Amino acid sequence: MTEETLLKLSIAATLLVAALGIVMGLWTGSRAIVFDGAFSLVDAAMSAVSLLVLGLMKSYALSTARGQKLEARFNFGFWHLEPMVLALNGILLMAVAAYGLINAVESLLAGGRLLDFDLALYYAGAATVICFVMAALGYRANRRLRSGFVKLDAQGWLSAGALSAALVLAFGLAALVADTRLAPALPYIDPAILGLICLVLIPVPAAITRKAIAEMMLVTPTDLRARVNAVARQITQKYGFLAAYSYVARVGRAEQIEMYFVAPADMPARPLSDWDRLRDEVGDALGNAGPDRWLSVTFTADPKWSA
């Protein structure tokens, strides 16, 4: 299953869950279910944006008329959009969860609200099954795809599934205590479970959001820097260069690498084809060749060109 197919399936399933959640939440009077639907709606919107960005990146990489037109207008491609979308997605999901928490506290302070727990239980059960099935599909497919979009989408489904499962537990317990001495607590169950769920959901997108912001800020990734420096030292020692300098960044799925080798001023002249073969050797040593690697290798006798 491709990224595009998985995201399209996810959008369709998310819209279904969102529509059911909002309708059932308003019908039963459950703010927790309305929040579940709203959370899914935001997730669907961001999945659609992710699909659009993914389509742009794939078109740019193809030798088609559209790809050539995009390349002429956007020389550096669309890699920068991936962390932007991931960061926006994570921030929006955390903001929705924070808003849900505020509503939960407000409802608790107002004395809670009674609702139809039987209907709510049916919805929560169906939503739990859909969410966990979609999360399992996403995580399984991403073992091969290794996509930030699919990973965040699968995390969203897992979070939504946990939310729905918590609703099943809460509404089930509420149905059991409806005719007992604990019945006065029933109005507080819905806002209490909403508040707990929001507290759990707020930090879930934090790791991906932090990573995406770091990529937007072009923070140097330590693993990529170490790999590039190791190759630079190897080539410097092998061919007698005076020094090597490297500048690296990871933006979404793209690796951007610039390497400068400083040669002795009296190094014998060599054909350009020799330098090209040396560039190929550097590229092979770095690995990860493909449309998502931006590699520039420069040889100079003047250190100022490496600064």
Automatic annotation (TrEMBL):
The Cation efflux protein transmembrane domain, residue ranges: 7-217
Gene3D superfamilies, sorted: Cation efflux protein transmembrane domain
InterPro entries reported for this sequence: Cation_efflux_TM (IPR058533), Cation_efflux_TMD_sf (IPR027469), CDF_Transporter (IPR050291)
Domain of life per record: Bacteria
Residue ranges crossing the lipid bilayer per the database entry: 7-27, 33-57, 78-102, 122-142, 154-176, 188-208
Main location: membrane
GO cellular component, one term: plasma membrane
Matches recorded under Pfam families: Cation_efflux (PF01545)
UniProt subcellular location: Membrane
Keywords attached to this entry: Membrane, Transmembrane, Transmembrane helix, Transport
GO biological process: intracellular zinc ion homeostasis
Membrane topology, record value: Multi-pass membrane protein
Molecular function GO terms recorded: cadmium ion transmembrane transporter activity; ferrous iron transmembrane transporter activity; zinc efflux antiporter activity
SUPFAM superfamilies found in the cross-reference section: Cation efflux protein transmembrane domain-like
Protein name (Swiss-Prot/TrEMBL): Cation transporter
Organism: Roseinatronobacter bogoriensis subsp. barguzinensis
Source species taxonomy: Bacteria, Pseudomonadati, Pseudomonadota, Alphaproteobacteria, Rhodobacterales
